Amino acid sequence: MKRFVIILLCLVPLAAFAVDSTACIKIGNEILFCINQPEGSLKSQQRAQIATNAIEDIMTGGGSLDSIKIVECDSQFVIVYKKSASDSMQVISVLPADTFGTGKTIEELSQDWYWKIRRGIAGERERSLSAGTIAKLALGVLFPVFLILAYILIHRIYTSLAKSTVKCEGTAFRGITIKGAEFIPSRLQVNIVLKLLFALKWIVVVIVFYVMILGFFTLFPPTKTYTDVILATSLNWLGVVGNVLIDVATFLIAGAALYIIARILWGLVDIIFRHYEVSSETTKIPLLALASLKRFFKLVIAFFFAVGLVAVVPGHGEYVALAMLLLATIFLGIAVLPFITSIFAGLAFALFRGIKFDDTITVGKATGKLKAIGLVWSSLSDEQGEEILFMNTALLRPIFYKPYSMEEPPLDTETE
């Protein structure tokens, strides 16, 4: 009994050494063959690992089995995998020492390993196709359903957020009001948020659909290469689109800021003119003139808002804005030209005093005594004592004046 135990204890290290010194090449759970000889500095386990990695590369690359070749090299044979006409990958070398105990020649052993590798790869592909293909086909059938479910989920989230936004009108969204002047109404604020949510919804839908479609086509080897190319192209385009989106976001933010500033200025105009409209009896500005001035200032604010909005357009919007300002300056200059002429006419008559106060003059159809020469407007008093205003440009036209009072009787040159 003791001898049996001693022999068993001696056989265990030998068996362990035998197992350790032998390395097997597997595909999945199937053992193709084993190697028990080193090659130079490579141990048998390292040779087996190199061969296993090469076979896995062939499996994942979807290469053809006919691209696996046996090449004779000196006194050994090498099983290689041809990736291309100019590139090849060594799978495993068949050495003369590997034939020890097999009863085969090195050529027969290389042929045996060659066919075992081919059959193992073919069998593993069939096994993976049997279960994986069914799952992929099922996924392909259900893929439209997944797309519809994703859209329904996104739409429900959008609907929930939109309803919450509408319910918050008057509470969370109260608009912007300063001193009783409403710059941004609550309804307009809610509409802006709803439009942003609607745009965000479709952006999310497009991104989710794109990712799902790319992920679906990645599952199939024939389309995986095209998917990789599309993905790389998409990433490049995504960088370009990202820059465009940054420009658009900058434009929208600048436009929103300009709109808020314009609304604030409109509110200030309303506040200022409301003060004059309430106290119109104590001011010299009539209500019709106040209404015209109010519309004029609002149009000026709207014009500068449009110019600023055009100036922040990505590209060369600033040139268009400059052209708008130049055109506006030209039209404004044409519009105020009579006033400028009137100013210079008033200055000329004030400096050179071609006529003086209380002179009787006739301007157009009005005749009376000159009472005042202002910067733009002058006035005369007619025979009824009413004050008549006229622009100083009227003084540049032919006028008739008498240095004496109109009450003096004219000289009678006729003789009786």
What does this structure look like?
This protein has helices spanning 2-21, 44-61, 106-167, 186-218, 221-278, 287-311, 317-352; strands at residues 23-27, 30-35, 68-73, 76-82, 88-94, 176-178, 181-184, 360-363, 366-373, 377-381, 387-391, 400-402. The protein has 416 residues and is an alpha+beta fold. Strands 11-10-9-8-12 form a 5-stranded antiparallel β-sheet. It has a 3-stranded antiparallel β-sheet with strand order 3-4-5. Strands 1-2 form a two-stranded antiparallel sheet. β4 and β5 (88-94) form a beta hairpin. α3 (106-167) packs antiparallel against α4, α5 (221-278) runs antiparallel to α6 and α6 (287-311) packs antiparallel against α7 (317-352). The longest helix is centred in the first third of the chain and has 62 residues, at 106-167. It is rod-shaped and about 145 Å long. The termini are far apart. Residues 11-21 and 401-416 have low confidence and may be disordered.
Q: Which sequence of SSEs, written as H and E, runs from N to C?
A: HEEHEEEHEEHHHHEEEEE
Q: Over the alpha carbons, how many angstroms does the gyration radius reach?
A: 49 Å
Sheet with the most strands, sense and barrel status: 5 strands, antiparallel
Query: How many angstroms does the end-to-end distance come to?
Result: 185 Å
Class from helix and strand fractions:
alpha+beta
- Count, helices: 7
List segments where confidence is low: pLDDT < 50 over at least 5 consecutive residues.
11-21, 401-416
Mean pLDDT: 76
Query: How helical, in percent, are the residues?
Result: 55-70%
> Beta fraction of the residues?
15-25%
State the total count of DSSP E strands: 12
Strand order of the largest sheet: 11-10-9-8-12
Outline, from the CA principal axes?
rod-shaped
